Amino acid sequence: MMKSIYDRTEKLIGSENLVKLKNSSVIVFGLGGVGGHVVEALARTGIGRLGIVDYDTIDITNVNRQTIALRSTVGKYKADAFEDRIADINGHIRVSAFKEKLTAESIGSFTIEEYDYIVDAVDDTAAKVLLIEKAKALNTPIISSMGTGNRTDPSKFRISEIEKTHSCPLAKKIRKELAKKGIKEVKVLFSVELPDKFDDNFKGTASIAFVPAVAGLLIAGEVVRDLLKGD
């Protein structure tokens, strides 16, 4: 019998569920430390169609945590690099790569309505709110990643509705913005670990390899379970 890359997955979840994943589609916004690991896991789990969205290129500072970031890929567009990587994992996955920033003007170009599930892994507050609002309008399931930077303990991640979040400054901002729009019951991943604060002149967000990776894998697992529970 010919071996398949999904033999061991099929043994775990069954052939019917494997087919269900093959017939499912997920669009991931943001291909950094969190979103990149989401895409990687979904491709290796057998999702049949993936939308990948990121306007940025790979920087040398991404190598410490982003699965697509290598010395050989620095300077490439993240969406292009991931399109190649997904093809190398499973050439039968249908991939739509978008090298465009998510804004109110561009949101219509991503054909979000064609996907079964949306993953928000962008780091821009306005874009997150915009995407969540769009998902609610379409009645499409979404999971949104809150802050993972400036933290060192991946065991502190939780998945819950946005109203139940705490200890996360980004979640607090998103929660307030969504409340203004009357939007509730949004599934998010957040950390109960308080982010470190720095007294020096460091600009940006500190990070380490295993924290955003765990966040991405937890999100991917939640997406897969939700898709398998669906009709």
Task: Show the helix and strand layout.
Elements: H1 7-13, H2 15-22, E1 25-29, H3 33-45, E2 49-53, H4 78-89, E3 94-98, E4 117-120, H5 125-138, E5 142-145, E6 157-161, H6 169-180, E7 187-191, H7 210-229
Parallel strand pairs: 1-2, 1-4, 2-3, 4-5, 5-7
Antiparallel strand pairs: 6-7
Instruction: Count all strands and give the number.
Output: 7
Instruction: Please count the helical segments.
Output: 7
In terms of DSSP E residues, the strand content is 5-15%
Instruction: Tell me about the largest β-sheet.
Output: 7 strands, mixed
Structure summary:
The model has no long low-confidence stretch (mean pLDDT 96). The chain is an alpha/beta fold and 231 residues long. It has helices at 7-13, 15-22, 33-45, 78-89, 125-138, 169-180, 210-229, and strands at 25-29, 49-53, 94-98, 117-120, 142-145, 157-161, 187-191.
Q: Descriptors for this entry?
A:
7 strands, single chain, 231 residues, alpha/beta, seven-stranded mixed beta sheet, 14% strand
Give a written overview of the molecule.
With 231 residues, this protein is an alpha/beta fold. Helix content is 37%, strand content 14%. It has 7 helices and 7 strands; from the N terminus they run ααβαβαββαββαβα. It has helices at 7-13, 15-22, 33-45, 78-89, 125-138, 169-180, 210-229; strands at residues 25-29, 49-53, 94-98, 117-120, 142-145, 157-161, 187-191. Strand 1 (25-29), helix 3 (33-45) and strand 2 (49-53) form a beta-alpha-beta unit. Helix 1 (7-13) crosses helix 2 (15-22). The mean pLDDT is 96.
